Amino acid sequence: MGSFIQDLRYALRGLAKNPGFLVVAVATLGIGMGAMTSLFSVADGVLLRPLPFPDPERLVVAHTTQPASGDYDEVTSGANYLDWVAQSRSFEDLAGFRRVSYSLVGGEIPHRVRGVSVTPQLFSVLGVQAFLGRTLTPALDTPGAQRTVALAYSLWQSEFGADPGILDRVVSLDGEPFTVVGVMPPGFVFPGEGDRSTLLWTSPRYRVPDPPFDFGQDPSESRGAQYMEVIGRLREGVGLEAAQSEMTLIAERLADAYPEENAGEGIRLVPLHEFMVADARPLLGVLLGAVGFVLLIACANVANLLLFRASRRNREIAIRRALGASGKRLVRQLLTESVLLAALGGVLGTLLALWGTDALLSLAAEEIPRAASVGADWRTVGFELLLILGTGVVFGLAPLTQLRSRNLRTVVSEGGAHTGGPARSRLGNSLIVVEVAVSLVLLVGAGLLGRTFLTLLAVETGFDSSDTLVANVELPATKYPEDHDVATFFREVLGRLEAMPDVESAGTILTLPIRWAIRGELRVAIEGRAADPGEEPAAGFQAVSGDYFQALRIPLLRGRFLGPADGEEGQEVALVNQAMAERYWPEEDPIGRRIAWGDPEDEDTDWVTIVGVVGNTVMDGLDGAPRPEAYHPYIQSALPYGTLVVRGTSAGADLAAAVRTAVAEVDAERPLSGVATMDEVVSGSLARRRFTMLLLGVFAGAALIMAAVGLYGVLSFSVAQRYREIGIRRALGARQERLLVGFVGEGMRLVVAGLGVGALLGLALTRLISSQVYGISPHDPVSYALGILTLMAIALSSSLIPAWRAARVDPARVLKEE
Fold first, then answer.
1. 3 state DSSP class of 151
2. Which residues, 6+ apart, have CB-to-CB distance to 24 below 8 Å?
3. Is the pLDDT of residue 368 over 70?
4. How far apart are CA 565 and CA 148, in angstroms?
5. CA–CA separation, 293 vs 301, rounded Å?
6. In Å, what is the CA distance from 563 to each residue of 485, 541, 548?
7. CB < 8 Å & 24+ apart, contacts of 635-638
8. DSSP β-bridge partners for residue 61
9. Is 468:515 a contact under the CB 8 Å cutoff?
10. Which letter does DSSP use for residue 566 in this model?
11. What is the pTM (predicted TM-score) of this model?
12. Can you state the angle between helices 378-396 and 19-43, rounded to 10 degrees?
């Protein structure tokens, strides 16, 4: 212990004598270690920590699948759910839920809050207890005149002032009374809700065979309507494979019993943790790899600094060896110094990590699931300690190459202060090659994502997003029970909007392009065509009203738009987009053809006549191909929700105020949600790609700067090491231009070697971000060329100063020193 303290004191004195070296080394390590710790903290909270539920490994979600096509959906029908509950034996219980929203009236402006309509078994499946009161339970929360609700802790604080007397209070949601029975604990995040936006959980309305639940309709009425998500808790001792086998058999039985709705359907069980983090795993993996490369470059730079410092300490090391110091003792001393440097860098890195973690969460709150689990704990501290020890040993190994057997006389005769020998040069040069290679990988990755982003910005969306505002509206069944009431509300709102001077056109649509795309298509029957089971035509279903197509300037290609004549009593009509027309009528004119949703043999099936063809719009994001879409008059569909689309002279605050005014004049208690310009909607669809691109670009920039500094340091040391040689060559007549070209060439040879290694490494690693690339190849030659040219330009700039210094060595001064 005494010798360790002695080594530590010696290391501190030595570092204090070289403040410039100390600052550069600690700053370099601190930046790399801080970035690594920040991302580890996020990755640990999202990917590694268990879910905050009892026995979380027993929680699974059940998806419906189409094994023949490999597709799956996160939702199923209420009737299927009831059969799963009745027939399965692998689960303690299965709970169903549907994400909904409610109008909450209480402030100056009514607003909507996100909630979940649940089966009361949900909280017992999750194993969650209420912070105040109780959760919903099957025994107490049966359907009846008065429904119950459990509030999120944040809603209880913001809307009800954290009133402890909230229990048994009746609140109004969508005009319907609910009794508050509990408040959930702070930090409780509903599965799948990374943005922690679920604020309440409501009890069932319909009573059906156990268990009871409510999703706005009796779930036993329609097996084809899929809207329910399902979470289950496996029985103790039952594995995922056994449960999956049982659910596969159940799916086969249901397909045999209900061939029209369930033909070809399967059931897929996914661990709840995997379900929650699956989308974030590739993003975090890419960023962890990138910041790991940055830390590697930081270590290489510090190793080069230590090599340079060790070469200047040859005289000291030789004297200590001559006085009897063992090689083991010197190794321990050098490692103590390097680990001390790493520890100082770790302290700075920890401070940067605290800021960096908060910055990551604020920049990507919507992209990072389980954000509430992110934070520093013993795992983060342990990782930081391992990082300090690992980096300290890694770059501390470099100076050990100086501990070869050399006597004091040889060191003194060589000048001692500037000797390092070929071993040092080879190692330093190798580190530069590694830095250049890793920098090229990061630059290529940033280039691929940057070009992808530009490609997506240039995608033809099929609509004009300028000067257009959108806002979502939902109408409660308690206040708008009839189709006529719904149709009247939207007709009156649009009428008021169109009468405003700053409004050019206004309409509504069921699901807005890009933002509210329906993930999937509905089966379509085409009159006069038979289809084999499982191969029926399919298309997206949209309901529109007013001047929706004019508001987004979607072109009419054939036929006519929908108009006032297409009302409640008018003929059932529809428009189709170009993709649907080309797929199902490639050689025909679809105008006048009839289609239907549902069973074409059913006498009650409503056939719809196609009256027009409109242009394609992107629905599933800018990187999604146009899909078949059919547009039905909203007034004939009368769905109690939709999105207002309003084009004005500008899409600023005045237009938003005008939309709120028009809605309030029709129903003062009807809030709007998702108010945004259409430009913001398009931009928001690129949020994850933009975040990944910017962060990878920052890491690539940091790597580029570190590589340039490293190359500058190596060449500067080479000049210092060969100072006598250069002076003698100058005295013998060597021209400045030749020395300049020689030293620049020395640096560029290292860079070219690094570029070769980096290109091979990039070809192997860029496949990891292939899912993020769109419109170009993961091996895009332009991205590689830009990365290579950028590195060569930076390397050339870094080489010129040391080379110029070598060319200007004064031979007279060197000979005088000799």
1. strand
2. 305
3. no
4. 44
5. 12
6. 19, 18, 11
7. 635/487, 635/490, 635/491, 635/545, 635/566, 635/567, 635/568, 636/566, 636/567, 636/568, 636/570, 636/572, 636/573, 637/510, 637/543, 638/483, 638/484, 638/486, 638/487
8. 231, 270
9. no
10. S
11. 0.74
12. 140
HSE at residue 536, side-chain half, CA atoms within 13 A, is: 21
Cβ atoms 632, 541 nearer than 8 A: yes
Q: What is the pLDDT of residues 325-341, one digit of tens each?
A: 666 766 777 777 778 88
Structure tokens at 641: 């929700």
What is the rounded average pLDDT of the residues 134-146?
68
pLDDT of residue 417: 44
For the CA atoms of 460, 461, 464, 468, what is the dihedral angle to 10 degrees?
-150
How confident is the model over 42-55, as pLDDT tens digits? 777 777 777 888 89
Does the pLDDT value for residue 615 go beyond 90? Answer: yes
Distance of alpha carbon 688 from alpha carbon 684, whole angstroms = 8
First-residue to last-residue Cα distance in the chain: 46
Angle CA 155–160–162, to nearest 5 = 85
Closest CA to 137 of 73, 213, 226: 213
pLDDT band at 518 (very low <50, low <70, confident <90, very high): very low
Q: How far apart are CA 448 and CA 3, in angstroms?
A: 53
What's the rounded Cα separation, in Å, for the pair 40 and 35?
9
Beta-bridge partner residues of 102: 113
Token look-up 């289809």 returns 531
Q: Where are the beta strands (DSSP E) in 566-627?
A: 573-577, 594-597, 608-614
> Cα–Cα distance between 621 and 534 in angstroms, integer?
27
Triad 31, 35, 36: Cα angle to 5°: 115
**% helix / strand / coil in the chain, to the nearest 5?**
50, 15, 30
Chain centroid to CA 692: 8
- Amino acid occupying residue 314: N
Average pLDDT of the chain, as a whole number: 78
